[in-house]
Design brief:
alpha+beta, eight-stranded mixed sheet, 13 helices, 42 strands
């Protein structure tokens, strides 16, 4: 029998709803269908991720060297000194991320800022999420220093907690297949239901739940008193909560299941169509949109059509609330985001650049470009900009004013979302930001998140994908961008963005090329349509010839070039003026990469990247030699060590 258990997946994935800290008194005041979680956001449901404790334990370690070259120290830390928020079972030691599993530390990834030591794979430790934490660190000296001091290292752990939301203690419900909600950082949970408080009598219902803290059970509960609890994969239990179910087993308590999704509506008078499921007969269909009631009708089996509002759908993003009731007076409720904006420009991004409404555009951009710096950027040839001040604010008006300035200089931009709101999965904020900016002609890409896997962010793959799905649903005209600090996480983030932003922060063109090749391998098998390369000018590469080589590699190997500056903000203009030759050359090259034409990119010999393109009746050949050897190619072109050639035939 088709059960309501499908509702949770459809509801949480398609409608992008989370239920967080809710007081029992608030739930008692809300009607049954609201308490079951059908609201996008209600004041009582407003999310607050204050779920668990993280102990931050500052300490220093003096590490002596032993005979076999390994350093081992056991350090006991007592008394937590600060309470913060964190993710479950994560331990951070210096800048190295480790996982705590079965009370033994295993290395997930190691990258430390210290130049004096690295952490070897055989390092071990113990994880004690209470009282004194004992840390055993294995380190290896890589220079002649006999004593190494590990400064500002921290050990963090999370005391897992599970907060029960609904049904709350003592609640009386008239539903033989009720919905359950709880709250935890754990990805996987087990819901247990029994009529015995000790969960020893039969039957005991067990349901495994992945990712979401919600479950509509498929089995019917007979009338009477029931107990339930939730546990994580680490066997952390919630408190036991009792409730009373009063509906007879034979009563139809299954509300219609609505499969409405966030939708962009192109024409303001178009109707909204969605699917539903219900064994019984539908009695009433009502839509609520901006204080207007919309009529609905069934136009095909399990398909409902809602008429457009009288004045048409509003520009931007608004919420549509749908209520569908059956003859047993069960009400299925859904609330979805509807977006609309006339004449949106269409942006297509691939590994040869961008097409904006069919017109070629090759982005050469810079991070952190403020309003007063745009004139200098424009003069040097930069045509694509980003600014964290406009990205991370929650003030959409400020971001729009920054985009207005971008438009004044005929530039294009990408913009992002406030990181805290992203981490909190605040879909209301994401939707409103899209609605407030969707019609701006300067905005050509949504930058989802910068390095989400870092411990300070700890954004999970499925959280990124949920936001990406929402952004793509509400704005199908622009691509989404994403980047990672650790490229090894790319494969597990499939379907997370349209364009991957590759950070080639290397000190030589040879290593930049290796970085591009490595990332290309990581991207194999993912549906990512393009790669957008970043190089660091003025820090790792500070000579014009090397900088031009790096830029060429980035432009040949991806759909554009982005600059990350060592000295951001007020130093931008100085860096621009410092590399006059670089900017002149780059400005001259952009039209080549922007132009239409058959393109071929290859390595004829290792370390030499070649680029061929036919533009009208002209053939362009570009090659970059990243090696320290003189190279002669098959076309008799000779390239000196660490140089490039550009030839037109």
């Amino acid at each position: 029998m088709f059960k309501k258990k499908l509702f949770i997946t459809a509801f949480f994935c398609a409608f992008c709803v989370n239920i967080f800290a809710v007081e029992d008194s608030d739930l008692a005041k809300i009607s049954r269908h609201k308490a079951r979680g059908y609201l996008v956001k209600d004041k009582a449901f407003y999310r607050e991720k204050i779920l668990a404790k993280k102990e931050k334990l500052p300490f220093s370690i003096n590490i002596p060297k032993n005979s076999n070259g390994l350093i081992k120290v056991i350090y006991n830390i007592e008394q937590p000194q600060e309470v913060l928020k964190s993710r479950q079972n994560s331990i951070v030691c210096s800048m190295s991320l480790l996982n705590a599993q079965n009370n033994a530390l295993t290395y997930q990834y190691v990258r430390t800022h210290s130049k004096k030591f690295i952490l070897p794979a055989q390092g071990k430790g113990c994880y004690i999420p209470s009282g004194t934490t004992k840390l055993e660190v294995g380190c290896r000296i890589i220079d002649e220093t006999k004593n190494v001091k590990l400064r500002n290292a921290i050990v963090t752990y999370l005391v897992p907690q599970i907060t029960i939301v609904s049904p709350f203690e003592g609640q009386i419900i008239n539903d033989n297949t009720p919905d359950f909600y709880w709250q935890t950082f754990a990805d996987n949970s087990i819901l247990e239901i029994c009529q015995d408080e000790n969960f020893s009598a039969s039957p005991v219902f067990n349901y495994k739940v992945s990712k979401f803290q919600a479950k509509t059970i498929p089995d019917k509960l007979k009338a009477g008193k029931w107990f339930y609890r939730v546990k994580t994969a680490d066997n952390v239990y919630s408190k036991v909560v009792s409730f009373t179910q009063i509906a007879p087993l034979g009563k139809d308590c299954d509300a219609p299941i609505l499969y409405a999704k966030p939708t962009f509506i192109k024409n303001k008078q178009d109707s909204f169509i969605f699917k539903f499921y219900k064994d019984g007969t539908i009695k009433n269909i009502v839509g609520k949109y901006c204080n207007e009631t919309l009529s609905g009708k069934i136009i095909a089996p399990n398909v409902i059509e809602l008429t457009a509002p009288k004045g048409g759908w509003k520009k931007g993003v608004e919420k549509l609330r749908i209520e569908v009731s059956d003859t047993a007076n069960n009400v299925g409720v859904s609330q979805v985001y509807i977006s609309h904006s006339p004449n949106l420009q269409q942006v297509v991004w691939n590994n040869r650049g961008i097409k904006i409404d069919g017109i070629n555009f090759f982005p050469v951009g810079s991070y952190i470009v403020r309003k007063f710096e745009m004139a200098a950027m424009k003069e040097k040839g930069i045509n694509f900009v980003q600014h964290y001040g406009a990205d991370l604010t929650t003030n959409n008006n400020y971001t729009r004013q920054w985009l207005d300035k971008v438009a004044n200089y005929n530039l294009k931009a990408m913009t992002s979302f406030n990181r805290e709101r992203f981490r909190a999965q605040d879909f209301d904020f994401i939707a409103k930001r899209i609605g407030d900016l969707i019609d701006h002609k300067s905005l050509i890409a949504w930058y989802l998140f910068d390095e989400p896997e870092l411990p300070k962010h700890s954004v999970k793959s499925w959280e990124i994908k949920r936001i990406n799905e929402l952004v793509k649903a509400l704005d199908p005209s622009r691509p989404t961008l994403l980047t990672f600090y650790m490229e090894s996480v790319i494969p597990r983030n499939r379907n997370s963005s349209d364009v991957y932003v590759n950070q080639a922060y290397q000190k030589s063109t040879e290593k930049i090329l290796d970085e591009f090749i490595f990332v290309d391998k990581m991207l194999q098998g993912t549906p990512t349509t393009a790669k957008f390369n970043i190089i660091n000018l003025g820090h790792f590469i500070n000579k014009d010839d090397q900088a031009i080589n790096g830029a060429l590699l980035a432009m040949m190997q991806g759909g554009g070039l982005m600059h990350w500056w060592k000295e951001m903000g007020s130093k931008n203009n100085r860096l621009l003026n410092q590399h006059d030759k670089y900017w002149r050359e780059l400005k001259h090259l952009v039209p080549i990469f922007k132009a239409s034409g058959a393109t071929n990119v290859y390595q004829e010999v290792p370390g030499v990247l070649c680029y061929e393109k036919n533009i009208d009746n002209e053939r362009i050949f570009i090659a970059v030699n990243t090696t320290d050897k003189r190279v002669k190619l098959k076309n008799n072109v000779i390239i000196e060590p660490l140089k490039h050639v550009i030839i037109k035939y």
